[in-house]
Amino acid sequence: MFAGCTVALATPFRDGAVDEPVLRAWVEWQIAQGTPVISPVGTTGEAPTLSHAEHERVIAIVVETAAGRAKVLPGTGSNSTAEAVRLTKFAANAGADGALLVAPYYNRPSQEGIYRHFAAVAESVDLPIVLYNIPGRTGRNVEVDTVERLAGLGPIVAIKEASGSLDQVSEILVRTDLTVLSGDDSLTLPMLAVGAEGVISVAANLIPQDIAALIREFNAGDLRAARERHARLFPLCRELLGLAPNPVPLKAALALLGRGNGELRLPLCPLDEAALGRLSQALNQYGLLNR
């Protein structure tokens, strides 16, 4: 149910607070662009720096604004199992269509601990759950054996894979029936080639129709068009995810395009002049600054 292009939505701030009018405008823009799934309050949404009340408020606003015109898949993960359960229950009660749960971070649990964490959430709600594996941020890879065990739990329907390993993606696809989604824009086409069904995309904050077109071209068997689009997307995606930790370059790009003020929360800091110049060049080469 979450195949295709999902936008990993950024969270706009103004003077230190969530900018609710801009957030609503961003949701409306995504719907107008035809984005089928919106995923707020994840890594791109700067969830670690939101208070519990802000986290819940963003979920409520996105669900209310989407109003059934797009699915809403909020991030509800935590390194505390009790907090992940609480947030996921809130999302369910708010009317979300699913929940994206990152693996527990910082406390580096064993694979058994990871399994019990996700199982506790799955048992607490009647809501589709998408696992999120990003070991570069969490400090722990959710290993395929663990994913296979979790796939046996009914509410768990998909996994956002950002391990960077096509071998791991392939093994998950061989051993489970989960929908696999790319967690890295630059790997979307390679992952589609081995059986993934979509992406939870940072770049879709800027170019959702182009990300969707890549998936559509691949699914239609037009591999030449998909490869050409991937080649065009790659330099922009590389800068969006490589110049600084996500969502620093994305927020800067949105500001350059007149779609936000670029405000971040510490400990994230704005790009320096050199990095901003590289980002501007990538946006210009893609043609975004001339639209």
From TrEMBL:
Site feature location: Part of a proton relay during catalysis: T43, Y106
Q: Where in the cell is it found?
A: Cytoplasm
Q: Identify which top EC class this enzyme belongs to.
A: lyase
Named in its record, the pathway it takes part in is: Amino-acid biosynthesis; L-lysine biosynthesis via DAP pathway; (S)-tetrahydrodipicolinate from L-aspartate: step 3/4
User: Could you provide one GO biological process annotation from this protein's UniProt record?
Assistant: diaminopimelate biosynthetic process
- Enzyme Commission number(s): 4.3.3.7
Q: Which UniProt keywords apply?
A: Amino-acid biosynthesis, Cytoplasm, Diaminopimelate biosynthesis, Lyase, Lysine biosynthesis, Schiff base
Report the principal subcellular site: cytoplasm
UniProt keyword Lipid biosynthesis present: no
Q: Which PROSITE patterns match?
A: DHDPS_2
Q: Name one GO molecular function term.
A: 4-hydroxy-tetrahydrodipicolinate synthase activity
Q: Which residues does the annotation say bind pyruvate?
A: T44, I200
The question of whether Transit peptide is a record keyword is answered with no
* Active site per UniProt: Y132 (proton donor/acceptor), K160 (schiff-base intermediate with substrate)
Q: Which GO terms describe its cellular component?
A: cytosol
Catalytic function, reaction form: L-aspartate 4-semialdehyde + pyruvate = (2S,4S)-4-hydroxy-2,3,4,5-tetrahydrodipicolinate + H2O + H(+)
Q: Which family does it belong to?
A: Belongs to the DapA family.
Question: Which PANTHER family does the UniProt record give?
Answer: 4-HYDROXY-2-OXOGLUTARATE ALDOLASE, MITOCHONDRIAL, DIHYDRODIPICOLINATE SYNTHASE
Role: Catalyzes the condensation of (S)-aspartate-beta-semialdehyde [(S)-ASA] and pyruvate to 4-hydroxy-tetrahydrodipicolinate (HTPA).
* Complex formation: Homotetramer; dimer of dimers.
Q: What is this protein called?
A: 4-hydroxy-tetrahydrodipicolinate synthase
